[in-house]
Amino acid sequence: MHADEIRATTEQVRRLVTDQCPRWADLPVTPLPDEVEGTDHVLFRLGDELVARMPKIAWAVGQAESDARWLPALAPHLPARVPVPLHVGEPGAGFPWRWTVVPWFAGGTPPRLGCADVSLARDLAGFVRALHRVDPAGGPAKPPGSRGAALRHADDAVRRVLPRLAAHDDGFDVRAAEAAWEVCLSAPEWDREPVWIHGDLQPGNLVVDDDGRLVAAIDFGALGVGDPAPDVAPALWTFTGAARETYRETVGYDDATWLRACGWALAPSLTGIDYYRHTFPRMAEHGRRTVKSALTNLT
Predict the structure, then answer these.
(1) pLDDT of residue 4
(2) According to CATH, what is the number of the domain 118-298?
(3) I want to staple 276 with a disulfide (CB 3.0 to 4.6 A). Which of 51, 194, 196, 280 is the partner?
(4) Tens of pLDDT along 96-120?
(5) Which residues contact 169 (CB under 8 A, 6 or more apart)?
(6) Confidence class for position 44, pLDDT limits 50, 70, 90
């Protein structure tokens, strides 16, 4: 998936758990299948109730510390479960980075290429509203270029990728995508108090029960304090049809925030189509669908 990724092995995880978490040393270690793996961690089941999260790329190495610092404080305020670390592991056994053990949340994920479930849209909007109400004092400010910072900081990356996208047929007009991006950039920046954001509420980061109701939100790698717009963007990258409208209305932000949300749907989708075209086709396809959704909602 990444040219410079480092993938933990089952044997490494077994040795790390035995050395650092002896109470779990007898639990079987089972790698999760590729279809549930994301872009920045390799996951291993530890028995039936735990998961070891092993970073596989340098940009994700700070998540163990962030999760351990902030999720215990946020969890009591939220209406769904979050993966509060039960252990933060140190490098060892040939693995270079810190890692975590978190609870396993039983359930599934919504359809990755578009969910029409209105009830789930309400559930997720309620989760976001609760997260955004938590006192942001002392929280980590989102740095320029990251989701939750000013959208203009993503402009260079988007402009660089547009000519490469124009050389392919991804099912949308690249010139229309550029025009839509400029509309998003024209929106006023967030000028109110920053809020806590998850930043990556895509289908693969949601756990739902058999009835499709929200059980947990996972993977807080984009967690921080900033503009709420990235948490409005799931209207486009997670939901379709009436569920999209329900999410947008229930989460409850103004038109300027909606435009910035469309921008935060476009930027990682456009760059992701290019980056993952050959190495992670599922992610590239999710990006194509998100771009087309944004264009439909902006034109």
Answers:
(1) 86
(2) 3.90.1200.10
(3) 280
(4) 999 999 999 999 999 988 899 999 9
(5) none
(6) very high
Instruction: Say whether pLDDT at 194 is over 80.
Output: yes
Structure confidence at residue 281 (pLDDT): 92
What integer pLDDT is reported at residue 50 of this predicted model?
A: 98
- Check whether domain 10-103 has CATH 3.90.1150.10, yes or no: no
Q: Domain limits of the chain?
A: 10-103, 118-298
Query: Residue 116: its pLDDT value, please?
Result: 96
- The answer to which of 31-40, 133-142, 179-188, 210-219 has the lowest mean pLDDT is 31-40
